[in-house]
Structures are given as C-alpha cells and as structure tokens.
Amino acid sequence: MLGMVLGVASLITVLSVMNGFALELRDRILSLVPHAVVSSTEGTLTQWQPLATELQAVPFIHSVAPFIEDVALLQSRSRRIGSQVTGIDLQAQRGVSDLHGRILTGDLSQLESQPFTIALGSTLAGQLGAMAGDVIEVVLPTLSVTPLGVFPRVRKLVVVAEFEVGSSIDAVQSYVSLETAGRLFARSGVDGLQIDLGSPDNVAEAVPLLRKMLRKTATVASPSNLSVTDWRDSQGSLFAAVKMEKIMVGILLLAVIAVAAFNIISTLTMSVTEKARDIAVLRVMGFTSLGVMGLFLGHGLLIGTVGIAIGAVLGVFLALWVSDIATLAEQLIGVQLFDPSVYYIGRLPSELQWGDVVITTGLALLLSVMATVYPAWRASRISPVEVLNNG
Questions:
Q1: How many other β-carbons are positioned within 10 Å of the β-carbon of residue 98?
Q2: Same domain membership, residue 273 and residue 383
Q3: Do residues 10 and 81 share a domain?
Q4: What are 217-227's pLDDT values in tens digits?
C-alpha cells in the first residue's frame, strides 16, 4: 500500500512540475513570437496597408503588425554572433507581443526616433559585450561591388535597449525599426504581417478560418499568393519535444506503481499459502471457488484502492504547493535550487491538470486489478480434500 501511495503521488507531482515548466516556457517564448503570420509566397508585401486594414476587421483577430525579418552577423570588438534581426512598427507591435514589457535597460522608443539603432536580447548583448549606448557593426547578407573587390555590406548601429524573456530567444533575437530594416535589407515592402489571436490556443480554430477567408477574398488588399503560418510551425518541434519528455518520464515513473502492484501479487500469494487450510474449511462449508476468488480480489483491490486514494490526495497537495515547498527548502538550506542564469527561472513551477490525475489513478487501478487476478485464481484452485488430508 505504501508503495502504491509513493508511486501515485510522485507521478502526479512530477507530471504537474513538467506541465509547469512547459507552460512557463510557452508563455515566455510566445510573449515575443506572434500567434500567426500572414506572408506572401512570392516575396515582399508592397501594398500591405489595405491588407492590414482588412485583417483588423476580422472578429477573431485582435491586432496586426507589419515586420521585416532577416539574418545578419553582429560584431563588436570581441565577438561576432549571428542574429535574427526583425524590423517592427513600435506602436503596432504593442498589440502582438510583450516586447515593451520585457525591456531591461535603455529606451525602446529610440528605435523610431533615431535611425540605425537596435535592441538586443540580454544574452546576445552579454555575448557581444555591448550595452545601451554602445556601437556595434552589422554585416548584412548582401554584397557591395567596389573597385577594390566584392565586400559584404557593413553598417554601424547604436544599441538603445536590452530585452529579456528568459528563453533561448534572448541569445538570437534583435529588433530595429521598420524603416531601418527596410534600408538595411533593401526591402520595398514588408515581409509579412504578425497577427494576435487573443490566445495561443485559438490558432487551431482561427488559422484554418483565416486561410479559407483569404482564399475566398483574393483582392488587391489580400492577393491569392498569401500563406498563413502560426506559432506551431516555428516552435512546434520544441513543444513536441517537451511533450514527448513528459510522456517518457511518466512511463518511467509508472514503473514505481508497477513495482507496488508486484508487491500486491507477492502479498496475496503469501496470504493464499498461509490461509490454505482456512480456504479449505470455507470450501467444505459450502463456499464456492468463485466466492474464494472474489474474496481475494476484494482484498487486493482494497489494498490498491486505499493506496491509490491516499497517493492521489498527497500528489494533488504536492502539485499545488510544491513551489512554496521548494522556496521554503531554499530558505532553510540557504541554497538556490534553480539559478535563473542557468534555468531562466528562479522557482519551481507547477501546473496541476486533472486529466493527469485521472490517467494516473486509472492506470494504477488497472495494475492493481491485474495484480490480484493470479493470486485470487490460485486461491480458487485450492482443493479442500488435499489440504485437509495433508493437514
């Protein structure tokens, strides 16, 4: 019973912690990654303003923002690092991301008030050794032909801000104004429109409707060569890996419950051996073999059910309070368990999902039933004549 308690409680707690990490990671990444993107399959969107106005009128679309995006090599005195440089309209960007709320140092508004300025992710800025006010060079993915030969285009930009979301985005992402990006990457239009759907969970329903709408209303504002992608296309592999990790950890911890079920088999088998004479007496008094089998099935299920119930209650309690328990443990031992510089977060997140509780208790109950079948069957096969004669 104790083994069943520990197995069920540990599985519910660990799955809740993994849910918490996945939710924390999703919230951090999607604070900058748009829910959906409308882009052209044939290059840039030159007449994007009418399309943006048309999309703004769609009921399930909350905000629309233009962007220009390309890769470039950022270099300072010490290092050279590749970066994804995104040109944005600051006012429109407020509706599709939380960039303004993620600024650590500097003034993001200077991206538009001053030409050729850039905002860097905190990790990227640290690797470059740059801070607000410093000048870095951007090596662009185009070539300039001069009398001295062919050279890559290089432009100096002033760092005006640093942002941080607490994920890998901080090491690769940088932002410039839409005008600066157009001049850097020689764009006559924009690469696409970022769309906010209110919630990341709305993409499954909204994106197909948006694609259908754009196909039906192919006009100058919304030409037929438009494609729609969402955050699942750009970040789906990451979250699929997190989900697979959760499944594998769940399977491994299910082995603890399986061991507890094996202990039930051992306990009942020993009970059958010790109670063989009592079983024989019951059979002589008229107890049927099915009755004996039901008796031991009930005994095993009682052990399993009580253990599962206690484990479920304990697991739910730990899942709800594990963050506070971890914080209290850190205060008592004086050691930070989760260093933000390593794990991006400074606490142990937990998100209890009742579906996990139902699945865990259901599987544990199934294993308990399977564990009681063999000992109960063996008890029902005991011959009262042989046992009483040998006794």
A1: 15
A2: yes
A3: no
A4: 655 444 557 88
Burial 197-213 (b: 16+ CB within 10 A, else e): beebebbeebbeebeee
With contact defined as beta carbons under 8 Å apart, do 126 and 78 qualify?
Answer: no
131 and 11 in a common domain? no
* pLDDT of 385 higher than 80: no
Residue in 317, 289, 67 with CA at minimum distance from that of residue 195: 67
**Looking at the domain assignment, is residue 319 inside a domain?**
yes
Element (H, E) at 179: helix 178-184
Mean pLDDT of 280-301: 83
Q: Is residue 245 part of a domain?
A: yes
Residue 320 domain boundaries: 2-25+237-390
Mean pLDDT of 137-144: 78
Residue 174 scores a pLDDT above 90? yes
Query: In this structure, is residue 35 part of a structural domain?
Result: no
Judge if 213 and 265 occupy the same domain: no
Structural domains of the chain, count: 2
Give SS3 for 111: helix
Place of tokens 């990451």: 238
326 φ, ψ (degrees, to nearest 5): -65, -40
pLDDT digits (tens, 9 = 90+) for 305-319: 898 999 999 999 999
What is the distance between the alpha carbons of residues 312 and 13, in angstroms, rounded to a whole number?
10
Region 264-282 average pLDDT: 82
